[in-house]
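Lab meeting, item 3. Inverse folding demo.
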Protein backbone atom coordinates (compact mmCIF):
# COMPACT_ATOMS: atom_id res chain seq x y z
CA UNK A 1 0.00 0.00 0.00
CA UNK A 2 1.48 3.33 -1.04
CA UNK A 3 0.75 5.92 1.62
CA UNK A 4 1.32 8.95 -0.57
CA UNK A 5 -1.45 7.98 -2.98
CA UNK A 6 -4.16 7.77 -0.33
CA UNK A 7 -7.44 9.11 -1.62
CA UNK A 8 -9.40 8.50 1.60
CA UNK A 9 -10.88 11.74 2.81
CA UNK A 10 -12.83 10.34 5.73
CA UNK A 11 -12.79 7.51 8.28
CA UNK A 12 -15.29 6.43 10.90
CA UNK A 13 -14.75 7.77 14.42
CA UNK A 14 -14.28 4.23 15.78
CA UNK A 15 -11.63 3.41 13.16
CA UNK A 16 -9.92 6.76 13.83
CA UNK A 17 -9.76 6.07 17.58
CA UNK A 18 -8.31 2.61 16.89
CA UNK A 19 -5.78 4.20 14.55
CA UNK A 20 -4.73 6.62 17.31
CA UNK A 21 -4.22 3.73 19.69
CA UNK A 22 -2.30 1.67 17.12
CA UNK A 23 -0.11 4.68 16.27
CA UNK A 24 0.60 5.33 19.96
CA UNK A 25 -0.64 8.91 19.91
CA UNK A 26 -3.90 8.63 21.84
CA UNK A 27 -2.82 11.39 24.27
CA UNK A 28 -1.69 13.83 21.57
CA UNK A 29 -3.64 17.09 21.33
CA UNK A 30 -2.85 17.42 17.61
CA UNK A 31 -4.60 14.16 16.85
CA UNK A 32 -7.31 14.42 19.52
CA UNK A 33 -10.81 13.84 18.24
CA UNK A 34 -11.98 17.25 19.50
CA UNK A 35 -9.45 18.89 17.16
CA UNK A 36 -10.71 17.05 14.07
CA UNK A 37 -13.46 17.75 11.57
CA UNK A 38 -16.14 15.29 12.75
CA UNK A 39 -19.66 15.02 11.30
CA UNK A 40 -22.14 12.15 11.40
CA UNK A 41 -19.73 9.70 13.00
CA UNK A 42 -17.01 10.32 10.42
CA UNK A 43 -13.65 12.14 10.70
CA UNK A 44 -12.95 14.21 7.58
CA UNK A 45 -9.57 15.24 6.17
CA UNK A 46 -10.43 18.17 3.93
CA UNK A 47 -7.07 19.87 3.38
CA UNK A 48 -3.45 18.97 2.67
CA UNK A 49 -2.36 19.46 6.30
CA UNK A 50 -5.04 17.10 7.63
CA UNK A 51 -4.31 14.51 4.92
CA UNK A 52 -0.60 14.66 5.76
CA UNK A 53 -1.39 14.13 9.47
CA UNK A 54 -3.64 11.20 8.55
CA UNK A 55 -0.86 9.67 6.44
CA UNK A 56 1.53 10.06 9.40
CA UNK A 57 -0.95 8.17 11.60
CA UNK A 58 -1.23 5.36 9.06
CA UNK A 59 2.54 5.14 8.78
CA UNK A 60 2.92 5.09 12.58
CA UNK A 61 0.33 2.33 12.96
CA UNK A 62 2.10 0.24 10.30
CA UNK A 63 5.67 0.77 11.52
CA UNK A 64 5.15 1.09 15.28
CA UNK A 65 7.06 4.40 15.31
CA UNK A 66 5.16 7.55 16.32
CA UNK A 67 4.80 10.42 13.85
CA UNK A 68 7.75 12.82 13.72
CA UNK A 69 5.60 15.69 15.03
CA UNK A 70 4.72 13.60 18.09
CA UNK A 71 8.36 12.74 18.81
CA UNK A 72 9.24 16.43 18.55
CA UNK A 73 6.32 17.48 20.79
CA UNK A 74 7.31 14.97 23.48
CA UNK A 75 10.96 16.09 23.39
CA UNK A 76 9.99 19.77 23.75
CA UNK A 77 7.65 18.85 26.62
CA UNK A 78 10.47 16.96 28.38
CA UNK A 79 12.90 19.88 27.94
CA UNK A 80 10.34 22.35 29.30
CA UNK A 81 9.51 19.99 32.19
CA UNK A 82 13.19 19.76 33.18
CA UNK A 83 13.49 23.55 33.11
CA UNK A 84 10.31 24.19 35.07
CA UNK A 85 10.81 21.50 37.71
CA UNK A 86 14.56 21.86 38.07
CA UNK A 87 15.03 18.24 37.02
CA UNK A 88 12.50 16.50 39.31
CA UNK A 89 11.49 13.10 38.06
CA UNK A 90 8.11 11.41 38.30
CA UNK A 91 9.14 8.94 41.03
CA UNK A 92 10.38 11.75 43.28
CA UNK A 93 7.15 13.68 42.90
CA UNK A 94 4.99 10.62 43.59
CA UNK A 95 7.10 9.72 46.65
CA UNK A 96 6.91 13.21 48.15
CA UNK A 97 3.20 13.93 47.75
CA UNK A 98 1.06 12.92 50.74
CA UNK A 99 -2.05 10.80 50.17
CA UNK A 100 -1.32 10.38 46.46
CA UNK A 101 -4.07 8.57 44.54
CA UNK A 102 -4.35 7.56 40.94
CA UNK A 103 -3.82 7.77 38.18
CA UNK A 104 -7.44 8.34 37.27
CA UNK A 105 -9.00 7.68 33.87
CA UNK A 106 -7.53 10.98 32.68
CA UNK A 107 -3.97 10.09 33.73
CA UNK A 108 -3.94 12.51 36.67
CA UNK A 109 -2.79 11.74 40.19
CA UNK A 110 -4.43 13.62 43.08
CA UNK A 111 -2.98 14.30 46.52
CA UNK A 112 -2.04 16.87 49.12
CA UNK A 113 -0.21 19.80 47.58
CA UNK A 114 3.34 19.84 49.04
CA UNK A 115 3.34 23.64 49.16
CA UNK A 116 -0.04 23.73 50.91
CA UNK A 117 1.14 21.01 53.33
CA UNK A 118 4.07 23.20 54.42
CA UNK A 119 1.56 25.87 55.42
CA UNK A 120 -0.77 23.31 57.02
CA UNK A 121 -3.42 23.69 54.30
CA UNK A 122 -5.14 21.15 52.03
CA UNK A 123 -6.21 18.85 54.84
CA UNK A 124 -8.58 16.97 52.50
CA UNK A 125 -5.64 16.17 50.16
CA UNK A 126 -7.23 17.17 46.88
CA UNK A 127 -5.50 20.40 45.86
CA UNK A 128 -2.64 18.74 43.98
CA UNK A 129 -3.02 17.31 40.46
CA UNK A 130 -0.20 15.75 38.49
CA UNK A 131 -0.10 14.06 35.09
CA UNK A 132 3.34 12.65 34.25
CA UNK A 133 2.28 11.78 30.70
CA UNK A 134 1.39 15.40 29.94
CA UNK A 135 3.97 16.84 32.35
CA UNK A 136 1.32 18.87 34.18
CA UNK A 137 1.64 19.83 37.84
CA UNK A 138 -1.08 21.99 39.41
CA UNK A 139 -2.56 23.17 42.71
CA UNK A 140 -6.22 24.19 42.84
CA UNK A 141 -5.53 26.44 45.84
CA UNK A 142 -3.31 28.65 43.69
CA UNK A 143 0.23 27.52 44.53
CA UNK A 144 2.37 28.03 41.46
CA UNK A 145 4.63 25.40 39.95
CA UNK A 146 7.75 26.92 41.51
CA UNK A 147 6.26 26.80 45.02
CA UNK A 148 5.27 23.17 44.52
CA UNK A 149 8.69 22.19 43.15
CA UNK A 150 10.46 24.00 46.00
CA UNK A 151 8.29 22.20 48.57
CA UNK A 152 9.14 18.82 47.02
CA UNK A 153 12.87 19.46 47.08
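The presenter then showed the designed sequence:
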Amino acid sequence: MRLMSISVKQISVLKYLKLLKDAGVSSSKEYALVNQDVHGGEVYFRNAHRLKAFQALLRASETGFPPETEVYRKKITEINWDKETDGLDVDTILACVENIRGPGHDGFYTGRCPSCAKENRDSDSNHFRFNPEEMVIHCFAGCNRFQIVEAIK
